[in-house]
Design goal:
Helix 6 packs across helix 9. A seven-stranded mixed sheet has the order 5-4-10-11-12-9-13, sandwiched between helices. Strands 2-6-3 form a three-stranded antiparallel sheet, with no helix packed on it. The protein has a domain of 227 residues: FAD/NAD(P)-binding domain, CATH 3.50.50. With 349 residues, it is of the alpha+beta class. Helix content is 31%, strand content 22%. The protein has nine helices and 17 strands. The N and C termini lie far apart (54 Å).
């Protein structure tokens, strides 16, 4: 088996930042999920059952759950990252990994996002500050998204994720950073690393083309609510491998496991944006009042009957007509005209 990597190393577009594999969209916990698909956690892997959520007024509320609602990992070429761990496991199985190589034909294509449906700017650094998992919900500072401050095991990551007004990502980042530092002052050393990442979401009936199976963000497999995609990427990659080994239709496999989840996440995204900051404040309050945040978040991912009725309406209202860069073929994606309208930002204080 041979894998071709376009960059000179794995995880090349990441900066050693903390990311999360969500554990609320499925009943199967992440550790059991990884074991089932044959992945050993030989990388940084830490479950979390608490966080502090802040609304647009700066009110902070702690959420807790009886079991991890997610598992933090690191991304990038560094030792301990998910990327480095998967490379080691692939080599141990005899896989030949060819770097700096772009090929035109492959059985599985995992080239990442072709065009952004969401954009995040992040910075990461080493720190000795107390551990913290803070998430800030404010559509004015991060339109359609959120900002976040993670400090775990001596690694800090601050980021701002948005789904609109992409050209101003640096302004939104600076304003979000200033707001977070007013809440809890923290130092950012000169050796901090900065990077950008993308969310890629679209709906389709086929993730194949000319015999190739598109997986992960290359096929738009991502949760649209919070832009989390690692579990989708691992699931779609596993299903693509199964389709080859078992001589089964890849499109049938992913439609069964991922299709309904993506439709539900589209409706969740619509609700997340349409409620404005008032709706986000309600979300923060309800999450903190819930006896178990994992169970509360799992409720969002359930395919309720009313969400199935609402999905076609959202698709019609948000539909993009015309050409775009999403792959691999005919699909639904969101029109840029339906992005959130946000007021102009004031000066950074």
């Amino acid at each position: 088996m041979e894998v071709h990597e376009a960059k000179p190393d794995v995880g090349y577009r990441f900066i050693g930042d903390l990311q999360i594999i969500e554990s609320a969209s499925e009943k199967e916990p992440v550790p059991a999920f990884l074991e089932r698909i044959g992945i050993e956690p030989n990388f940084y892997f830490r479950g979390v059952d608490w966080s502090t959520f802040y609304d647009h007024r700066g009110n902070g509320r702690v959420v807790r759950s009886g079991k991890p609602y997610g598992w933090f990992i690191r991304r990038g070429p560094e030792e301990g990252s998910l990327d480095r761990g998967l490379l080691a496991q692939a080599k141990a199985l005899g896989v030949n990994v060819v770097f700096n190589s772009r090929i035109q034909e492959a059985d599985i294509i995992a080239t990442g996002p072709a065009t952004p449906d969401g954009l995040a700017r992040e910075m990461t650094w080493k720190t000795d500050e107390p551990e913290r998992i803070d998430v800030f919900f404010n559509h004015e500072l991060s339109p359609g998204g959120y900002s976040y401050m993670f400090i775990l095991d001596g690694i800090a990551t601050f980021g701002c994720a948005i789904v609109a007004d992409f050209k101003k990502i640096d302004e939104y980042y600076e304003h979000s950073l200033a707001a977070a530092q007013r809440m809890h002052p923290f130092a950012m050393p000169a050796e901090s690393r900065t990077g950008y990442s993308y969310m890629n979401f679209h709906l389709k009936q086929a993730a194949t083309r000319d015999g190739a199976r598109f997986v992960g963000e290359a096929a738009g497999f991502q949760d649209y609510l919070f832009g989390l995609g690692i579990r989708y990427a691992l699931t779609s990659g596993h299903l693509a491998a199964r389709s080859i080994l078992e001589n089964r239709d890849f499109d049938e496999l992913w439609r069964e496991q991922l299709g309904p989840k993506q439709e539900t996440s589209l409706v969740n995204r619509f609700l997340y944006e349409s409620g404005g900051n008032v709706g986000l404040s309600m979300f923060v309050r309800q999450a903190s009042r819930a006896r178990d945040f994992h169970r509360y978040l799992s409720g969002w991912h359930q395919g309720r009957w009313w969400k199935r009725l609402l999905a076609p309406i959202v698709r019609r209202v948000w539909r993009h007509d015309g050409r775009c860069m999403h792959k691999p073929g005919a699909h639904w994606c969101r029109s840029r005209d339906t992005e959130m309208k946000v007021p102009p930002l004031g000066p950074v204080v």
